[in-house]
Structure formats: structure tokens, C-alpha cells
Specification:
Radius of gyration: 28 Å
Order of helices and strands: HHHEHEEEH
Distance between the termini: 33 Å
Helix content: over 70%
Largest sheet: 4 strands, mixed
Number of domains: 2
Strand content: 5-15%
Length: 195
């Protein structure tokens, strides 16, 4: 599956790059035609008029190139966005099908969450199907810190750690982590687009 996603990603990005190159080449060809047209007019008019026409043509050519580059960047950004959404969709599907080591994942999320609360006594919320896994992890490593494990049907996977007084909450659910990843990737695309 990772190979398929890599090929899909590579194919979409390759298409977007080729499309961008085509747009820029077309713009360069159009710009060249405009400049050549302006040079023909130059031969027919006086010096003052010639300079004005050439400057106008260069400005128009520059505008066309700028527009083409913007359009090319937009195409690339859209392709990247599509790849990101497809990858995140595949990740969600993989999570739903349980195509990963759930125990190790929950153990790592719990460890990360407990590190963030620095020894404060907590309760842990998990999906009902993960309760037994988390109980086993807690019994082995965190029984002094985790005082309660609560089943929560709203959590599709991952965990939420909350201090007993409810003043601190760490949301380490799979959905929250995927949304955070998506925001970071979209920020990267935005930076690339407006360079």
C-alpha cells in the first residue's frame, strides 16, 4: 500500500509539474509573439513611439509570465492538496480496519500524554474496544499515575488523558492527530504557493 501511495503521489505531482511547464512555455511563446509584434511596429513609427510600444509589450509580456507562474503554482498546490487528502483518507481507512499494531500505538500515545502531564494523577478515555489493551499497559507501567480508565464511544481510536481535577486534557486521539497533520501539510502548501 505505501508503494501504491508513493506511485500515486509521484504520478499526480509529475502531472502537475508537466502541466505547469506547459503553461509557462505557452506564456513564453505568447510573450515572444507580443515582443516580435512590437518590434515590427517600432520599424514603422518614430523613436518616441517605438520606445513606448516596446515598454508596453515588455510590461504585457511580464504580466503574462506572472499570471502563468501563478497558475502553475496553483496547479501544483492543488495537486499536492489532492495527494495529501488521498493519503489522509487512506490513513483513516487503515485505522478503521486496524491495519497496525494497536497495542504499541496506544502504549506510545499514553506514554507521550503522561510525559506532558508530568506525574499528575489522571483518568484515561479510550474506545470501548481498547479498554482491555490500555488496562494491561497501565497495570504494567503506569498504575501509580492512571487512576481510572473510562470507555468512550465517541473516541474512534487513540486516547484522551485528563487530570483528575479536569484542569488538564491531552487529546491524543487518532482523529485529532490526523487533523493536526493535515493543518501542518496545508500550511506547507500555502508557503510554497506564495513564495
Amino acid at each position: 500500500m505505501p508503494e501504491l501511495m508513493d506511485k500515486l503521489k509521484e504520478s499526480i505531482l509529475d502531472y502537475a509539474k508537466k502541466e505547469a511547464e506547459r503553461i509557462v512555455k505557452e506564456a513564453e511563446r505568447t510573450a515572444k509573439e507580443i515582443i516580435e509584434s512590437a518590434e515590427r511596429e517600432w520599424r514603422q513609427k518614430c523613436e518616441g513611439e517605438i520606445n513606448k510600444i516596446i515598454e508596453d509589450a515588455k510590461r504585457k509580456a511580464e504580466e503574462i509570465l506572472v499570471e502563468a507562474k501563478i497558475k502553475a503554482r496553483m496547479n501544483i498546490a492543488q495537486a499536492k492538496d489532492k495527494v495529501i487528502k488521498e493519503i489522509l483518507s487512506k490513513v483513516r481507512e487503515s485505522i478503521e480496519r486496524g491495519e497496525f499494531n494497536r497495542t504499541l500505538s496506544l502504549k506510545n500515545l499514553l506514554k507521550e500524554s503522561l510525559k506532558a502531564v508530568e506525574g499528575i494523577k489522571v483518568r484515561v478515555y479510550v474506545n470501548p474496544k481498547d479498554v482491555d489493551i490500555v488496562k494491561e499497559i497501565v497495570e504494567k507501567e503506569y498504575k501509580d499515575i492512571v487512576k481510572e480508565i473510562v470507555s468512550n464511544n465517541k473516541i474512534s481510536g487513540g486516547i484522551i488523558v485528563e487530570s483528575l481535577d479536569k484542569s488538564i486534557t491531552i487529546d491524543n486521539t487518532y482523529n485529532t492527530r490526523i487533523k493536526a497533520l493535515e493543518r501542518r501539510l496545508l500550511q506547507i502548501i500555502a508557503r510554497e504557493l506564495f513564495k
